[in-house]
Amino acid sequence: MAKSLMVQGTASGVGKTVIVAGLARVFARRGIKVAPFKAQNMSCHSGITEKGEEIALAQVLQAQAAFQKPDSRMNPLLLKPQGETKSEIIVRGKSWRVREAATYYSYRDREFLWEVVRESLDSLEREYDLLILEGAGSPAEINLRGKDIANMKVALYLRSPVVVVGDIERGGVFASLYGTWALANEEERKLMRAFIINKFRGDEEILKPGLQEIEELTGVAVVGVLPYVSLSLIEEDSLSEKLSGKTNFPLRENEPLFWEMVDRELDWWSDILEEHLDIKKVEEMIGL
User: What percent of the chain has pLDDT over 90?
Assistant: First the structure.
């Protein structure tokens, strides 16, 4: 069975998608058969697989990073917003139905959709050596406790170690990391094995007292501080574009030159991860 690592975040747009993509490329370059996975993505940006399945463009990118063909199992649930309160639900790459947000979280739908997620995970586990999982939004949305099927429910199902990413550019990164940890229950905290601080500008020496204190407060190690870099790679959900003002790149899967550009950027980004993350500690967490 595959080993796994889950990348969660303190909020949307903190860099989960690109960190998953970078880690997928890091381990795939070592000869490990890697699959990305995001149980549920909310985005208007999608791509079509060779089988005609529609999945989030972010998971198309992550599959490319892992040298794998995109597959609906990598993103079994895609929510395509239709106005403020409802979305079209894509299940296993095919349109299922349109739901209001309140209805989407009904018990009947939730049980069915979790079964779709679980079956996708089980199938990928049998086929791959390593699953790198991406959470959705934040695992600390306490208003959704018991309903969220994209974050800790996935980690608990696989007993997967979790890395929590915080975005220092927005400010309050230590508060957001601590708050995410503090709002988790005891079983969830046991899986939170590391923090990553993303989008840092300046002298890292200034951060050291904060890094030490957050580790003392939570018992969770900071495995890296990633510098702010400008990437054209797509971010994780529909909110990130609103926050950054960036437009996501178009999917042009039949243009080799486009994907060559993406591959070069993925190689460059994964080199940055290898330089600034303690990859040995990450490997130890995963059990590689």
Answer: 73
What is the sign of the dihedral through the CA atoms of 216, 218, 219 and 222? negative
Question: What are the residues facing 99 on neighbouring strands?
Answer: 87
Residues 6+ apart with CB under 8 A from 275: none
Beta strand ranges found along 109-150 (DSSP E)? 130-134
Distance between terminal CA atoms of the chain?
Answer: 13
Split at pLDDT 50, 70, 90, the class of 236 is: low
Q: Name residue, tokens 């797509």.
A: 234
pLDDT in tens, 30-76: 999 999 999 999 888 888 898 999 999 899 999 999 999 999 999 99
b/e code 208-243 from CB counts within 10 Å (16+ = b): eeebeebeeebebbbbbbbeeeebebbbbbbebbee
String of DSSP letters for 164-175:
EEEEGGGS-HHH
SS3 221: strand
184 contacts 8 by C-beta, under 8 angstroms = no
The CATH fold assigned to 3-37+56-68+126-286 is: Rossmann fold (3.40.50)
Q: How many residues does the chain have?
A: 288
Helix axes 16-28, 256-276, angle to 10 degrees: 90
Nearest to 72 by CA among 41, 97, 99, 103: 41
Which tens digit of pLDDT belongs to each residue from 130-143? 999 999 999 999 98
- Judge residue 41's burial from the number of C-beta atoms within 10 Å of its C-beta, 0-12 exposed, 13-18 middle, 19 or more buried: buried
